[in-house]
């Protein structure tokens, strides 16, 4: 049995998640172009999501 493949997705608040590659990406989320196993996708998110605050909060604080 083949391992499930996932996409890394990001929403307008610049928050990341993973989504099954064979399912439609939900409204409000966009694929980032990175795909792979669950572990690979989560490792990628660990590398790129360095500030977990939502974008709107960073903007309100003058940091975005």
UniProtKB/TrEMBL annotation:
Organism phylogeny: Bacteria, Bacillati, Actinomycetota, Actinomycetes, Micromonosporales
Transmembrane segments: none
Domain MbtH-like: 1-47
Pfam families: MbtH
PANTHER family listed in its UniProt record: ENTEROBACTIN BIOSYNTHESIS PROTEIN YBDZ
Protein name per its UniProtKB record: MbtH protein
Gene Ontology CC: cytosol
Organism the protein comes from: Phytohabitans flavus
Gene Ontology terms describing biological process: siderophore biosynthetic process
């Amino acid at each position: 049995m083949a391992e499930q493949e996932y996409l890394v997705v990001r929403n307008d608040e610049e928050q990341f998640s993973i989504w099954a590659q064979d399912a439609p990406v939900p409204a409000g989320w966009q694929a980032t172009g990175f795909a792979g196993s669950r572990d690979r996708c989560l490792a990628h998110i660990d590398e790129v999501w360095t500030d977990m605050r939502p974008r709107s909060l960073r903007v309100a604080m003058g940091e975005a």
